[in-house]
Amino acid sequence: GVRMRMEGREEMQGAVGLRGAWDIPPPAGTQAKWVRLNVGGTVFLTTRQTLCREQKSFLCRLCQGEELQSDRDETGAYLIDRDPTYFGPILNFLRHGKLVLDKDMAEEGILEEAEFYNIGPLIRIIKDRMEEKDYTVTQVPPKHVYRVLQCQEEELTQMVSTMSDGWRFEQLVNIGSSYNYGNEDQTEFLCVVSKELYNSPSGLSSEPSHKAKV
Length: 214
What we know:
alpha+beta; Potassium Channel Kv1.1, Chain A; 2 domains; three-stranded antiparallel β-sheet; about 35% helix
């Protein structure tokens, strides 16, 4: 019976078109088209077809088992010592051809991985995106602008409550009573406010006018 099973398995391998023999036979019922990758401790499940979208890529050569002998973990997944954070977008790119990133994900990180896995079209897309970014606002660190506003005690609450968007209240300095209104002394304050200014690509700073009554 054992020999029959062995022959059966070899025929199956031939039919599926596997070039590299499995070190570990696939569990019964799973098609050899599914591939497990263990990237830096995170397991990704994908298909041979997805990995081979990019014929020259490391991943395509890996799952065809040509010249790359990769270690496997105990589940039979290929072990790849890379950062799993950036592998998701790489795999999704191979699945649907679009680069989708979380907003806090660095394009440099993806570029690094795309170069490692040798995925040419993705490398070009990221480089284009990074060049576009160079022309936009994000590359210019914000400048802080400070203003000192002088006001009297009774005007203070109104001034703080009408401060326009983007202005932050920094500091209040009591400079004592300097004017007499009839018999009443009005305490004078210096109010320090700050705002972050982003340089727009044209080189002009955009600064909304200050609405507060000074």
